[in-house]
Fold:
Amino acid sequence: MILAIRSIAVLKHIAFWAVTAWLSWAVALVVLVVRFCAGFHRAYAFNDYMLAGSHWIHGEYLYANLRGFIYSPLVAILFAPFTCSPPVVAYTLWLLLNVSALLGGLAALLKTTFPVISGAYSGVICLLLLPFALGNLDAGQANALVVGLLMFAIAAARTEHWDLAAFCVAIPTYFKIYPLAVGLLICTVAPRRFAWRLFVMFAVLGVAPFLFQHWSYVSDQYHAWLTTRTSDDRLTYSFNYAPLDLWFLIHDIGHLPVMPWVYTLLQLGTGSGLALLCLWGKSRHWETERMLTTLFFLVSIWMVLCGPATESHTYLLLAPALVLGLVQSFNAGYLWWARALVCAAFVLQFVNHNTRTSYLFHLKQPWIFSAQPISALLFLGYCFCWLITDAFRISYRVVIVTSRQSESRQFLFPEPAHERWDRSTGES
Structure:
């Protein structure tokens, strides 16, 4: 009888947070749409996308504004249908697409890949993620769609749906290029099953624009896209437009005499280090969940710290991993300093992501802008404490032992008999 009463109380608690999260997201979307209708919006990115879609339909040059549309011709095709709708309808559909990808990818990740957090926390996680997404959604940015698809890719790799995983990596890469890092890291743990699929998916999506416009126009736009991306050296940007990444900490805050080519080697070296870490984990026969969680957390940090184009809104790519890490720190008995690291990282991101403290307090000192990359470094320290050490294995066992709804790991994380992951090779 007592157990039944406790179960009902737990279910009510779970339902409360789930309902609160969904209502909060719904209210936020309604407010954003109303603001757009009233003209009090900052949807500059969405306007750039819409303009690119219109230029594509009319066969016009896509890259006239170097601070405007900077994505591949494939992205322009994706926005061409939006131009046929009224702006309010198009913006609403774009919001729904982004939110569906973000929350859907998070749900898929929790269900398949992240075993140390119970589904009971899903409402809390969605609620904590909302403040990080608002600024992106208001501006019409594509970061929510990008990170949502990347989470779908990780979840698809866990269930060995390799075609879906390749698609969910390829689309974000045609948006921002550096999400390719996720695909390359998956290739290190499952090369035979995933590498050729990723290559084929890139080829298919790359050829797709030639089906919708004259080949000479498409080839010219591809050439312009590659030219503008390779010539866009963001390390030379002024302070107002400088990327908020590791180079910002080294050059603008630390004033260290580091040459740009040295920093480029650092970017490549850290990316290679992630691949070596995945190979090392594979040789150590890490559990699939530990391998993919390490991959997702660390590549999220790499994309914002060492990626080529990190703005304030770009840190949404880090937000899902950060929120999951925060919830997990309270879900298991970690040392106080490890919990302090992730809490400090979360607070810095929370304060800066939407409000941009420099504007909120009318301060424009460089150290104010360093809060976001510093938070990524703090989160990196937490990740090494948790994922690289035995803390992951311990927290995993704690969840298995304390979960009375299941009697086996296979029940908690169902894996079809014909889709077993060989932990010694990373293949099925």
Residues 1-11, 398-428 have pLDDT under 50 and may be disordered.
